[in-house]
Amino acid sequence: MGKKTPILVTGSHRSGSTWTGLMLAAAPGVGYIHEPFNKEIRINVNSKPFEHQFQYLCEKNAENYKEVLHRIIQYKYPLAGNITRITTLKDFTNIIRDQGIFLKHRLKNLRPLIKDPHALFSAEWLYETFNMDVLVLIRHPAAFCSSLKIKKWYFGFNNFLTQPLLMKEYLAGFEEEIREQVKTQKNIIDQAILLWNCIHHTISIYKQNHPEWLFVKHENLSRDPVNQFRKIYETFGLQFTDKAKARILESSGAHNPVEQHDKNEFVRDSEKNIYNWKNRLTKDEIELIRNKTSEISSLFYSENEW
Predict the structure, then answer these.
(1) pLDDT tens digit string along 145-178?
(2) Quick one: CA torsion of 173, 17, 232, 25, rounded to 10 degrees?
(3) 305: Cβ–Cβ under 8 A, 6 or more apart, which residues?
(4) For the chain, domain boundaries
(5) What would the pLDDT profile of 61-74 be if each residue is shown by its tens digit?
(6) Is-contact 50 35, C-beta < 8 A?
(7) Cα–Cα distance measured from residue 79 to residue 238, given in angstroms and rounded to the nearest whole number
(8) What is the pLDDT of residue 255?
(9) Does residue 269 or residue 139 have the better pLDDT?
């Protein structure tokens, strides 16, 4: 019997967290749980949806959510609550699908793996409350910004500003910039720069305070996925089977497209995907990102990675 300690895969969004979570869930005895912190998922496995994107939980404010998250890692699907939210046939089919997945995971007594970049700011509380093994993903600022650019993913910085505990604990140094973003929405590159800085500043704090956590750069996973995932499997006490290896190769090999594909964006030529940002961004955008993230990005990336 392997470990039953829950696993948390978090970090920067657009850093391969879904790919990473799915590849780890290819291990025998692991059950994948998708983004309970993501408030944009209208019918979720979370019976008490969060008020904010990137919800911050700590001892001072988490009491109402502790039992909810405990039920999630026990695979207890909130069927009654979700039935009341049904408005379309798709809602109904999603509920049937997710309830079936949770039931199967519970019957097999699988080790829960929560994949959720939106849980980043709550990672310490989750770790301390549920004794989780934590993997934090990091991504190059230019790659992150380029990904948000092609996705056209704008962010409402009010999600940060209306969480005073989060602002005080991690984001106080960015308050002026965040208020300016809330007051006057900037272009998507400026938004992405500030968001990358907020996220990776927090990750840098975690890296200092939690040497027992795993911190993995997306680029390292992409260059050598089999060996990098093998190391993660070993650290988390997972069985690295031939089936798991084959799935990793299938999702990341050179036979896959370099750019994301509408039908399955989690299947790519992972090595060539590393520097897609050089084609997606203008030279001026790259220089802007480099200058405005340099203080924090230098903690993770060297000059020759630009």
Answers:
(1) 999 999 999 999 999 999 999 999 999 999 999 9
(2) 140
(3) 140, 219
(4) 1-138+210-273, 140-209+275-306
(5) 999 999 999 999 99
(6) no
(7) 31
(8) 46
(9) 139
